[in-house]
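Appendix B, record 7
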Amino acid sequence: MKILSIDTSSNNCSVAVVDENAMLGEININYNLQHSVLLMPLIEELLTRLDLKVKDLGALTVSTGPGSFTGLRIGLSAVKGLALGSDLPVFASDALSILAYGVYGYGGVLVPMVDALRGGFYTGFYTFRNGKLITLMEPAILTLAEVKEKLEKEEKEILILGDIVDKMTDEELKFKENVSIAPSSLNIPRASSIPYLLGERIRSGESDDIHSLVPVYMRKSQAEYEYEKKIGMLK
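Structure tokens (predicted):
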């Protein structure tokens, strides 16, 4: 079964096609948050390069966030349109798990951290056991100081990844000897990771209801925040 996968939760606009045996193709454009312009042409380009049509696909996978509010809406709208038009099942995952899965097999504590604005970061704690991604702490919005406090007594190796790496210095992030910083290639969620992350669900047919599938925002948008601040709803 060939699966089209989409991730627009970050600056990276990512589309991929995988099947049971291989990742057949992937395109990533990590520049200038152009998802509204790029996404559908990238999907068309990838399918054309692979000599595929939508009717050749067996399923769709997508990231629901948290992350870019606009990007998430664009990605989910595209997936819902494709699913409704071609009667394809949709399987969705949160963006933090997708980021963590990109470091497949890591035995320490994976700490993806994505900018949530106003000093906070979308984050969760993960590790791998027997080839399966395990959630150690459910996604939350925390400051770097709060993350450090929660990991203060952690003795295993810790790997920090995500766009926090572009916003903080190594000195700020390496708060313990067992903390490492992921290289840039691991700091963006990639669409090709999602079908493998969701492999068990896909094989069992546990698809998501596209009518109730919505982005995971976890907080109000910056525009909503600024508006409420302007009219005095926020102190």
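Remarks on this record: DSSP finds eight helices and ten strands in the chain. Confidence is low (pLDDT under 50) at residues 221-230.
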